[in-house]
Design goal:
Length: 88
């Protein structure tokens, strides 16, 4: 049931599921996600429920730290570029 009256962070949090966190919680969740990305953990290891803003912060931290996968074309292009002498 949606709360009546003006919407506030505390009214959202009272809906259950830990929807909202404090600024420190959000910062910590982003740092935890970044650490998981650096370790190479799968994104499914996120400890926060889907309804939580902390999950979004965790995933953003994870995405910033996790390198993008290279396709075969990207790898071939990078190898060719590294082998080409620079003339400047």
């Amino acid at each position: 049931m949606w709360p009546r009256g003006p919407l506030s962070l505390s009214s959202l949090d009272s809906l259950g599921g830990g929807v909202v966190g404090t600024r420190e919680d959000i910062t910590r969740a982003g740092s935890e996600g970044a650490e998981a990305g650096r370790r190479g953990d799968p994104p499914t290891t996120c400890p926060y429920p889907r309804t939580s803003l902390l999950r979004g912060a965790w995933v953003r931290g994870y995405a910033r730290a996790r390198p993008l996968a290279l396709t075969e074309d990207d790898a071939a292009s990078a190898s060719a570029e590294a082998a080409t002498p620079r003339t400047t």
